[in-house]
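Encode chain A's predicted structure.
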Amino acid sequence: MRDHHASSAAVHDAPPSHPQHPLAARLARAVLFAALLIACAAVAAVAARAATSPVVVMTVNGAIGPASADFIVRSLERAARERAPLAILELDTPGGLDTSMRQIIKAILASPVPVAAFVAPGGARAASAGTYIVYASHIAAMAPGTNLGAASPVQLGVGAGGAPAGGPEAPAGNAGSSGASGASSTSGAQAEDSASTETRKIMHDSAAYIRGLAQLRGRNAVWAERAVREAVSLSADEARDQHVIDLIAQDPADLARQLDGRVVTTAAGTLRLATAHAPLEVVAPDWRNRFLSIIADPNVALILLTIGIYGLFFEFANPGFVLPGVAGATCLLIGLFAMQLLPVNYAGLALVLLGLACLVAEAFLPTFGVLGFGGIVAFAIGALMLIDTDVPGYGIPLPLIAGLALGGAAFVAAVSSVALRARRRPVVTGAEAMVGSIGEVIDDGLHPDSRPGRAPSATGWARVHGERWRVACAAPLAAGSRVRVTARSGLTLTVTPLHDTTSNEGERS
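Encoded structure for chain A:
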């Protein structure tokens, strides 16, 4: 019995195997609570940032070109960095260059931020390249009173037998659509058969491209192909009814409200838009975009090339003047950079440069207008051929070509007149310049030359053009007499008294 009580006492008196320290337990709970607070704060910060991230609005007016492509691509990159919930591309364009259009579409397809193409404001259009961009965007919208379509890459006139441009179109898949594809495809096929192989290749490539974009976004692929082959157009209501666009909105704010809660699939995955209360941030072109938009104008590029050639000419004609050379080289390099951004016909560019070279050669090798006239003709023909596209906004107007050609003609006329005046001007340097000069006898007088075998003459020294010359005269002359040089033989000048020359001229007159 005593052993049992002793063992029980020993068990109760033994310390526990896992002792609990109140201070350590409280510290662990405090650390855990702090970690939970930090995690909640981080989640709240991310959520608040996502909620306050503005919707980026990009506005493009005018033809699609290198400047607008650079603006859209960099704006989408900025929207991705700022984790914007949506990027709205507000379009009003008659079309544009194929290379710039494809650059924009590649950026839209690779964008992690949903892009909504919005044809606005009222009265705007998204023709040609704008239609492709609308089809490539994640969301397509239009404002009331706008239109899109006419996406033919070349002017073929294939719409003569089909539906007129801008007329009502039937929804995809119904009898109207099939009838259009049957009746109008016959005339379209006939037109394409008469077209060149290159034109047909461009047409088929463009049709396949927009059809692929329509299938990617789940839009009306039949009408998209008709927009390319037949250059048809749609109004905003017709585009929505035929499932070409997703919705109609009044302005970017209204579009953002209507898109709230919509599920969109981008390159980053499937996203649910939360744009009902998101602020709008309008992105304006910076100095780089404005600079590109200026120099990428074919008119400006041609003027820069002309100024560059003339500036280098003036520098070569007047070495050391510096300013014409620096300005000319800068303008020439900027003009060539602009040309590589544009669809240039290289035969036209070669003719322009040949014409300018002939105009410059006329100044160095005066041919009394022959080189200059040929240069003007080459320049004018080359300027007409320079831009190889019919896209609106990328042609060089005839008044500009005429003005530059007339400027070149005035330049040639001025150079030729200067050359003619210089040709008639008397010689002022060299041995021939001494003949006719006036001098003054500076020694005691011209004395007769008594050496045997010499013709009767008087020799002495005279000052001519500020220099001391040995002179010979048929008669002796006193010091201080004025004489006129009639000939030169080596270092000896033949002179006559000035009064005799004057009196002889008076008798002849």
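The chain has 17 helices and 17 strands.
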